[in-house]
Design brief:
With 241 residues, the protein is of the alpha/beta class. The chain contains eight helices and twelve strands. Helix 3 crosses helix 4. The radius of gyration is 17 Å and the shape is globular. Bound molecules: zinc ion (ZN).
Length: 241
């Protein structure tokens, strides 16, 4: 099984289309989305439609949750909350029902999926580094746990009680080692690289690849401005910060 991993799309249809185009020749047979389909960006309906059409397993992110339950946005900053309120007005009942149907966590063949942390999926905790990851391995039984939420790539392995941060973009996976993986954000990267981030997990070949792909960032930025959303949400796309 070869899995495409995408997370934190954030209503950025330009970035999501570029990822799917880039991956089109790579033979992925399972498409996994780790949530935050919406929020921040100007194309929530298009992003939801494409995720529903193309992805096999999808879990709910905190921005998705905030669209259907305003109480979930209490920790959001002003700009994030403005974008969620705009998104809520844009979506129809069918789209809200779809978001409501998304689970907080699920698993397939040795792979756990969750937006924030496996330890507390509804708590939206940020797993930012190896130390943060160390608390998570006891919370899932599978060999792999795929997370999102921070918008920062992170691959941590656990072998015989030893944690290791894997810094290569291609990681050779070994059967007796467990991994916590964040491939970074499709639609709003925050690691200083504006290109869309996603990953390919090949379970048969034992290979994980973190990939980046350029897209029309200026078009995504302009749509944010034209929609009347906070301009800074578009500006940060230009720098990936
Ligand atoms: Zn996010």
């Amino acid at each position: 099984m070869r899995c495409l991993i995408a997370t934190d799309i954030h209503s950025n249809i330009e970035a999501l289309e570029a990822v799917l185009e880039d991956a089109s020749g790579l033979g992925c047979d399972m498409y996994l989305c780790l949530g935050d389909i919406v929020g921040y960006g100007a194309s929530p309906r298009e992003a939801l439609a494409l995720v529903r059409d193309r992805f096999d397993e999808v879990v709910r992110g905190n921005h998705d949750a905030a669209v259907i339950d305003a109480a979930e946005s209490f920790r959001f900053n002003e700009n994030a909350r403005a974008a969620i309120e705009w998104t809520r007005r844009e979506l129809g009942p069918d789209e809200r029902d779809y978001i409501e149907s998304l689970p907080l966590t699920c698993h397939i063949d040795g792979v756990r999926l969750v937006h924030g942390s496996p330890e507390d999926p509804a708590g939206w905790h940020y797993v930012k580094d190896t130390m943060g990851a160390s608390y998570q391995f006891e919370a899932f039984e599978e060999q792999f746990c795929l997370i999102g939420h921070t918008h920062l790539p992170l691959v941590v392995s656990l072998a015989g009680g030893t944690l290791r941060s894997e810094t290569d973009t291609i990681v050779r996976l070994r059967p007796n080692i467990r991994y916590l993986v964040n491939v970074g954000s499709v639609g709003q990267p925050r690691d200083g690289d504006p290109d869309a981030a996603y990953g390919i997990l090949d379970l048969d070949a034992g290979r994980l690849e973190l990939r980046r792909v350029g897209y029309d960032v200026e078009r995504a930025r302009r749509k944010i401005v034209d929609a009347g959303l906070p301009e800074s949400l578009g500006e940060r796309l230009l720098t990936g910060a």
